[in-house]
Amino acid sequence: MSALSEAPPAARPQLGPGTWAALVTLLAGALCLIFAPRLPWLTAWPADWVLLDTKSLSAWLEAALRFIRPAARLVSALLAYPMGWANALFLATPWPLFIGIVTAIGWLIGGAAMASLGFLGLVFVLISGYWAEGMSTLALVAVSVPVALLAGLAIGLLANEVPRVKGAVQVLLDVMQTVPTFAYLTPLVLLFGFGPVVGLIASAIYAAPPMARNVILGFERVETEIKEAAIMSGATRFQQLFQVEIPAAGRQIMVGFNQCLMAALSMVIIAAVIGGFNDIGWEVLLTMRKALFGQSLLAGLVIVAFAVVIDRMSGALAFERARHDRRVALAILGVALLATLLVWWRHPDPEAFRLLTPLAEAVDKGLGAFTASQGATLDALKNNAMFYGLLPLRIGLDDSVLPFTWGFQWTAWMSGAWFAVAALAGLALALSGRVTAGIALTIGLGIIETGIAQLPWPFVLIGAGALGHVAGGRRLALLSVVLLLAILVSGLWDRALLSLYLCTASVVACVLVGGALGLASAVSPTVWRVVRPVCDMLQTIPLFVFLIPVLMFFQIGEFSAFLAICAYAVVPMIRYTRHGLVETPPEMVEAATAAGATTWQMLRDVRAPWAAPTILLGLNQTILYAFSMLVIAALIGTTDLGQSIFLALGQADIGLGVSAGAAMAILAFIADRLVQGFARGQREALGL
Amino acid sequence: MSDAATPAISCRHLWQVFGPNAKAELVSALAAHGRDGNAAAAELRAKGLIPAVQDVSFDVRPGELFVIMGLSGSGKSTLVRCLSRLLDVTAGDVRIQGEDIATASKARLIELRRKKLGMVFQHFGLFPHMSVLDNVAYPLRVQGIGRAQRQAKAREVIELVGLGGRESAFPRNLSGGQRQRVGIARSLVGDCEVWFLDEPFSALDPLIRRQLQDEFLQIRAKLNTTIVFITHDIAEALKLADRIAIMRDGKVIQIGTPSQIVLNPVDDYVREFARDVAKGRHARVDSVMKPAHGTLAEGPSLREGMTLDAALAACVAAQAPVAVRDGAGAVVGQIDPADLVSALHVEET
Ligand SMILES: Nc1ncnc2c1ncn2[C@@H]1O[C@H](COP(=O)(O)OP(=O)(O)O)[C@@H](O)[C@H]1O
Ligand SMILES: [Mg+2]
């Protein structure tokens, strides 16, 4: 003992918090592995340990809902009026006039470019034959957006005026961002009854937070001196707000308006799953179910057309300043009126212009021919990805390696060898000085052997706690563990792990593909010129539409879900990677150039470390995107929490809906906090 | 206007402490150290609070141009925001024309700001969504003055600051110097009696800065306001000030006329400031003048208000004390050439 205490303290290896966390996790994993065969409750949470199953939760919530239901029904009856009016107005407006109005607005906002965008977009809607359905969707958006805007503005104002509630409001907004879209619907259906009003309310609830966020951000970004100048001018608080602060925050508030519109549109379309309203989202669902992919694609493109027109126009509202001649807008309206008199008079029914149906049928036929001839290739692609990628990740090598697919049977002996290799590889890394990386490698290889869906729960809890401790200190560690425990005792653990698996698989794919594309875009402007519009487009398309093409080629199943999630979630990874790499301060680049660094050295030694926090934020976005798509993907065959949420909606099972929604939100929330914590650590390490 | 005896601004034992629970912490720290400000501030710092203004007391006379000078972070902006009550003071007393600002009601504050106070900001604080004319007219707009009337008044002030013709421009289309002219015009449109300027020229290029300083002095000559002017630039302070207060780490460590500051710096910190200054150009003969006694030699005589440089040039050959005369030619004092020389070399001691 005395010999030890006399040794200089520096001689002892110094373990950082990351290394400690990794060690603890490794130890937990090893213990679980050893005891799992004898203690089955380590991997499967026993049914009698479920404290709050979804049935009793349903009963509780039902009892609670009974008190507010009359009020809710009143609201829904009241909202039915403006919705009916909007619907009637949009459907009754002669289509040439409507096209003319949108074109004229486009002109006022952004000149010829926006005018033609509006015109072409709506003409496409007209000839697609989905005019009436489209107008129903727009009517819903038109009623829900003002509600969302007002609510968002009010929340933002409240947070700004009452500093004490600001923190709470921001946490609430964060949480709402992680709640999956479908999860809103079940409680709303039970409160407000089936029907379009639920879509309206869901869309307003979903669209208000982006507005509120941007309003808060806008107020924060108004320079202090501008606010002080208003005070010193002798303005009352009311005058300061409405004459100075709100206008000065105008651009950010317009960004909020843009996001609010897009969120409302997205949610209105998602809400179509509850049916009862003849809108375009419903049309997509219906045609998808009937496997009429040509029609489905057409309807999906109508949604895309709306999304692009709404997004670009409201975006231009925030960022363009040029004034455009009003007389041109009036002239456009005049032409539209004329067209109304001449054409609409004889063809009041927009259905008469259904020109694209043959095209849709041709697509169907072509697709049929394609799948018939290339079916084997497509199947091979799908099966290979499933058998050699997704399945091992889900149920582990030990269960997925079968003679039928891999050509041999995985044995206990192989598991032993695998773990030995994992330990040795980790040890080698650790001995070369990268202790944490070594332990992480061992853990990672261990997870592949076990499979994410079969991870022992103590391991997951301890791992999340350890990560939380590194990323955000004791509070985050505790929060993560408690929240995960909540999932455990609600009996949804298996499904939660399935969600975790699907999310992990997609995020890993997105990181690889998105990182590579981001890197290529950073290095080559030509690549970026191609990738950028694709990214813009992918970010504009409502989630729902992603399902159509993957269904067309790969039918219902996990692989299709995986592809849809990847297609949606890859965008932030590309953008942030490129942005981080490109935005390295020029003086750093010049210093490295002056020191004689090659392009590759520059990338590795200067740009990549600088970009790390930005890329981590991209990863964070990718994870959140993946979680939000996970729920939508349930429509095409997954077995995770997303499916539970979706089932709950169909069966009006509020207990299941709420707990599955909450479980999904918990996973997303923890992932969000962890990655944000790491990003913060990286930023601080760079002194930012 | 109040009578000349009441200071335009008076502050006593003014404290501004940032941090949680600042008021209670300050009270207890002061009590613990027997009202010793320095010790109390040290304790607050140790607790992680920021005493940005510590125990500051001074008076500003009506019509005076009072400059507060100090390095960045010394608490100048915080102090001026306490005077205009953009910040609630943590402790102490601020009076404007005898009226207690710290306890004034919201309504009264609005009234005061509309009628008596004007403020210019370092980064201009212009409203980005308003034209120059609307920016300048804004203080009148909040009072409910009609459009035509307020715009007429705003045009006058815009003319005064030399921006005539740019009324319909937006701040983003103006240069830095032009923006600050708008800021100045806006603060003057309400005919303020007390005018705060927080480093108004610090964000500008040296050339523009000098030009605006000169124009500022011209404008000042036309007005009758009390001015509190903040700067970190000793040359600017000396050029403009009637009196200068020097701040360091939240404390005012010296208050005096430019000559006093240059010739008798109170400590090394101030001496460091004064070091790079051509003293002869800023100090005036009054600061080394003694009462006249005995008979004075014939020969050169000095004028009251002359700079030391000019005085030295005028009596470079003189051996005996030289008379100082006022505008009418009457002797008001005398100067020993030796004193003159040693005053100019004070920093070498
Ligand atoms: N709102 C605030 N909260 C906390 N600290 C502040 C705040 N405003 C100023 N400070 C601190 O007070 C000190 C004085 O700041 P300031 O008055 O702006 O200095 P100056 O204007 O002389 O450059 C600085 O250390 C600054 O960091
Ligand atoms: Mg300052």
From TrEMBL, chain A:
<feature type="transmembrane region" description="Helical">
    <location>
        <begin position="182"/>
        <end position="207"/>
    </location>
</feature>
<feature type="transmembrane region" description="Helical">
    <location>
        <begin position="410"/>
        <end position="431"/>
    </location>
</feature>
<feature type="transmembrane region" description="Helical">
    <location>
        <begin position="610"/>
        <end position="636"/>
    </location>
</feature>
<feature type="transmembrane region" description="Helical">
    <location>
        <begin position="98"/>
        <end position="126"/>
    </location>
</feature>
<dbReference type="GO" id="GO:0043190">
    <property type="term" value="C:ATP-binding cassette (ABC) transporter complex"/>
</dbReference>
<feature type="transmembrane region" description="Helical">
    <location>
        <begin position="500"/>
        <end position="523"/>
    </location>
</feature>
<feature type="transmembrane region" description="Helical">
    <location>
        <begin position="438"/>
        <end position="456"/>
    </location>
</feature>
<keyword id="KW-0813">Transport</keyword>
<feature type="transmembrane region" description="Helical">
    <location>
        <begin position="138"/>
        <end position="159"/>
    </location>
</feature>
<dbReference type="Pfam" id="PF00528">
    <property type="entry name" value="BPD_transp_1"/>
</dbReference>
<feature type="domain" description="ABC transmembrane type-1">
    <location>
        <begin position="496"/>
        <end position="675"/>
    </location>
</feature>
<dbReference type="GO" id="GO:0015871">
    <property type="term" value="P:choline transport"/>
</dbReference>
<feature type="transmembrane region" description="Helical">
    <location>
        <begin position="297"/>
        <end position="319"/>
    </location>
</feature>
<feature type="domain" description="ABC transmembrane type-1">
    <location>
        <begin position="134"/>
        <end position="314"/>
    </location>
</feature>
<feature type="transmembrane region" description="Helical">
    <location>
        <begin position="74"/>
        <end position="92"/>
    </location>
</feature>
<feature type="transmembrane region" description="Helical">
    <location>
        <begin position="476"/>
        <end position="493"/>
    </location>
</feature>
<dbReference type="InterPro" id="IPR035906">
    <property type="entry name" value="MetI-like_sf"/>
</dbReference>
<dbReference type="GO" id="GO:0015226">
    <property type="term" value="F:carnitine transmembrane transporter activity"/>
</dbReference>
<protein>
    <recommendedName>
        <fullName>ABC transmembrane type-1 domain-containing protein</fullName>
    </recommendedName>
</protein>
<keyword id="KW-1003">Cell membrane</keyword>
<comment type="similarity">
    <text>Belongs to the binding-protein-dependent transport system permease family.</text>
</comment>
<keyword id="KW-0812">Transmembrane</keyword>
From TrEMBL, chain B:
<feature type="domain" description="ABC transporter">
    <location>
        <begin position="34"/>
        <end position="274"/>
    </location>
</feature>
<comment type="similarity">
    <text>Belongs to the ABC transporter superfamily.</text>
</comment>
<dbReference type="GO" id="GO:0015418">
    <property type="term" value="F:ABC-type quaternary ammonium compound transporting activity"/>
</dbReference>
<dbReference type="InterPro" id="IPR003439">
    <property type="entry name" value="ABC_transporter-like_ATP-bd"/>
</dbReference>
<dbReference type="GO" id="GO:0006970">
    <property type="term" value="P:response to osmotic stress"/>
</dbReference>
<dbReference type="InterPro" id="IPR027417">
    <property type="entry name" value="P-loop_NTPase"/>
</dbReference>
<keyword id="KW-0067">ATP-binding</keyword>
<dbReference type="InterPro" id="IPR017871">
    <property type="entry name" value="ABC_transporter-like_CS"/>
</dbReference>
<dbReference type="InterPro" id="IPR051921">
    <property type="entry name" value="ABC_osmolyte_uptake_ATP-bind"/>
</dbReference>
<protein>
    <recommendedName>
        <fullName>Trimethylamine N-oxide transport system ATP-binding protein TmoW</fullName>
        <ecNumber>7.6.2.9</ecNumber>
    </recommendedName>
</protein>
<comment type="subunit">
    <text>The complex is probably composed of two ATP-binding proteins (TmoW), two transmembrane proteins (TmoV) and a solute-binding protein (TmoX).</text>
</comment>
<keyword id="KW-0813">Transport</keyword>
<keyword id="KW-0547">Nucleotide-binding</keyword>
<dbReference type="Pfam" id="PF00005">
    <property type="entry name" value="ABC_tran"/>
</dbReference>
<dbReference type="GO" id="GO:0016887">
    <property type="term" value="F:ATP hydrolysis activity"/>
</dbReference>
<dbReference type="GO" id="GO:0005524">
    <property type="term" value="F:ATP binding"/>
</dbReference>
<dbReference type="InterPro" id="IPR003593">
    <property type="entry name" value="AAA+_ATPase"/>
</dbReference>
